[in-house]
Amino acid sequence: MIAVDNLSFSRYQGGREFPILRELSLSLSKGEQLALLGDSGSGKTTLLHILAGLLPAGKGSVSIDELELTEMGDTELALYRRQLGLIFQHYQLLDCLTVKQNIQFQFQLNFPKQTAHEFDALVEALGLAYKLDAMPHELSGGEQQRVGIARALLNQPKLVLADEPTGNLDQTRSHQVVQLLTKLCRERNINLVMVTHSQQLTDYFDRVEILRDGQFA
Ligand SMILES: Nc1ncnc2c1ncn2[C@@H]1O[C@H](COP(=O)(O)OP(=O)(O)OP(=O)(O)O)[C@@H](O)[C@H]1O
To answer: What range(s) does the ABC transporter domain occupy (predicted)?
Structure first.
């Protein structure tokens, strides 16, 4: 469950305040999936970064499964971030590692004593079973993003945050990737918040919100 209450966030430049988010409130039940739309510069990535504990909220409260992010110190935030799945537009795969190593790298770093029970099921569902020994540059854009999805879901996260994950893909591949991502999160009851510029891709989501002037329109 995600509860954002009266969240405000500003940037400051040259002594001036630039409000980005204004008294924003949002509530997502367990497993609910939200697509976040809005013009360029409307604050979508800023909101995602606050949910990820990467940016501090200015005012208001942000709680994830009743953990209040605004009250956490650096160590708690670092532990919180381990429970997230992050998916980026530019995939951010490590060029010198194979597909298999890319999927497992972060998990092994964060949970060295645990087994990634989901590995086989995820690579199968994402059609990556025959690509495990390939290097990232040998994959198509859609395949690279499917590696990004496998990596994000491997640690059974409580929340997946995706920032324009299909920004580099054509329409057909975008639909395939988002269909798979929403399906896998739904099967696992994982909350998903995805930033997108595509109205069409929002069909796969339970909820759609549009950011305008720092608030939901
Ligand atoms: N590091 C930063 N320092 C100062 N201002 C920033 C910084 N990052 C973002 N901003 C400003 O904050 C505002 C919101 O940016 P944000 O990246 O959240 O928008 P967005 O809706 O994700 O945009 P886009 O769709 O273009 O990615 C913009 O006006 C941007 O210029």
So the answer is: 2-217
CATH class belonging to 33-58+76-216? alpha beta
Measured distance CA(183)–CA(185) in Å, rounded: 6
Minimum CA distance residue for ligand 1 atom 5: 11
CA of 85 from ligand 1 middle (Å) equals: 21
Q: In Å, what is the CA distance from 51 to each residue of 65, 82, 120, 121, 151?
A: 12, 13, 29, 28, 19
Taking CA atoms only, the protein residue closest to ligand 1 atom 29 is 41
Q: Where are the domains of the chain?
A: 33-58+76-216
If you measure from the C-alpha of residue 27 to the centroid of ligand 1, how many angstroms do you get, rounded to a whole number?
23
ipTM for the whole complex = 0.97
Look up tokens 């500003």; give the residue. 10
Sheet bearing 67-68, strands edge to edge: 16-28, 2-13, 59-64, 67-68
Q: Residues 82-98: pLDDT tens digits?
A: 999 999 888 899 999 99
